Amino acid sequence: MEDEDFNLTTAYDKPKQKYALPEFNKLLEDFDIEKTIEKEPTFLVREVRRTINEKLSAYMHLFETLINPTTTPMFIFSALRKIDEDTKRKIKDVYQKLSKLQINAIKLDTIYSEQSEAEFINIAFNEWQNLKEIINRIIEKFEENIEEDISPRERGYFG
């Protein structure tokens, strides 16, 4: 099959049925898999897993920055100052769950198993369904804190 004839949706159907993977459209919605898999891969399930892991990895890095903000932009320091203990706990919980997924993904890169790759896709997809709402609420809190910080009543050096 030539790359120009490759159809990701059709190619995904076989492993989807074999391993009871999430619906293709749901993966597109959450992980933009069509952007990274443009040509026919030899190991499709692994490529889908790697694409999912890229997004999870980016969020893990964000939460790592929130937990340990050593060289972060000033707006993060400012927003973190106003975060309540419950939100801090949620940040740590999300980070822990993302870290666990990251370790599993690293392990999968050592020895290939399509079955293990598919299991990761299912686990990561289900975990993401739980985490994305929590992450969204955390980001909304940061947004609120930043809005409060730039309000006219708090003028700083440039205000």
Would you give an account of this structure?
With 159 residues, the protein is an all-alpha fold. The protein has one domain (3-149). The chain has 7 helices and no strands. It has helices at residues 8-19, 24-31, 33-36, 44-67, 74-81, 85-108, 114-149. Helix 4 packs antiparallel against helix 6 (85-108), helix 4 packs parallel to helix 7 (114-149) and helix 6 runs antiparallel to helix 7 (114-149). The longest helix is centred in the last third of the chain and has 36 residues, at 114-149. The protein is elongated, with a radius of gyration of 19 Å. The model has no long low-confidence stretch (mean pLDDT 87).
Please outline what is shown here.
Helix content is 73%, strand content 0%. The longest helix has 36 residues.
Helix content: over 70%
Domain count, please report it.
Answer: 1
Radius of gyration: 19 Å
User: How far apart are the termini?
Assistant: 62 Å
Task: Classify the secondary structure makeup into a structural class.
Answer: mainly alpha
Q: What integer is the average pLDDT?
A: 87
Strand content: under 5%
Overall shape: it is: elongated
Largest sheet: none
Low-confidence stretches: none
- Kindly state the number of beta strands: 0
Secondary-structure element sequence? HHHHHHH
Number of DSSP helical runs: 7
